[in-house]
Structure formats: structure tokens, C-alpha cells
Amino acid sequence: MSTFVSQSSFLDCSDTQTNTFNVYESQNYYLLSLSLPNILTSTLQVKYMNNWVVVKASLLLSSNAPKFVSQFPLPTNADGSHLRAKLQGDVLAIVVPKKQTYCTEVDIISF
User: Fold this and answer.
1) Model-level pTM?
2) Interior angle at CA 48, CA 21 and CA 19, nearest 5
3) 21-25 and 84-88 strand pairing
4) Which residues form the SHSP domain (predicted)?
5) Phi, psi (5° rounding) for residue 10?
6) Does domain 3-97 have CATH number 3.30.465.10?
7) Type and span of the H or E element at 29
8) Residues whose CB falls within 8 Å of the CB of residue 35, separated by 6 or more in sequence, listed in order
């Protein structure tokens, strides 16, 4: 079961257009759902850089091709190097798996 994560825990740096986004958390991944109306889909880029997800695209609204740019910091337990993105209609879904945690028991020896 996934839970909704407050948007305030992620930073939206879009300065060209207001877009709706939601963040959900499950046991194994984070899901960022971003509404992207009026974008030129052929220009859509999703990148992972220094623990941030960066979304860029050109907008359809003008011949000057204004840019949409949004940045989302990832939690420290997110594995951004394995993120996946899917655009369906005007909604972009970005799935970011969580890093696997390992617990190893260590034998204690006496000297």
C-alpha cells in the first residue's frame, strides 16, 4: 500500500508554468506524478543529477518555445540511478526505487 508524501518535502522549481504534482511512497519505491499540459512531448527530458530529478520540456503555447523546468530532490534512501518515467496523456509518472538496505551480522571474536 502506498502513502501520500507531502509536497512540501519536495521542491518544485518551475518558474514558467504552474503544474500539479503528487508524491507517493510505498515500501519499495517513490512515485512522482506530474501534470504536464501543453508540452511538446518530443522535447520532454527526465534526468537524475546529484540526487535530484530534473524534468524539462518545451511548451506548445508560443513560437518562442518557452521552457518548463522542474526539479525534485530525492530522499537519501532513493535510488535515482534506476528511476523510470512514463508519459500517459499529460501525466508524467516517475518511479524511483528505494535503495536496498542490508544487515549483516558480524561475529565477535576474543583476542
Assistant:
1) 0.73
2) 20
3) unpaired
4) 12-111
5) -125, 150
6) no
7) strand 29-35
8) 19, 20, 21, 90, 91, 92
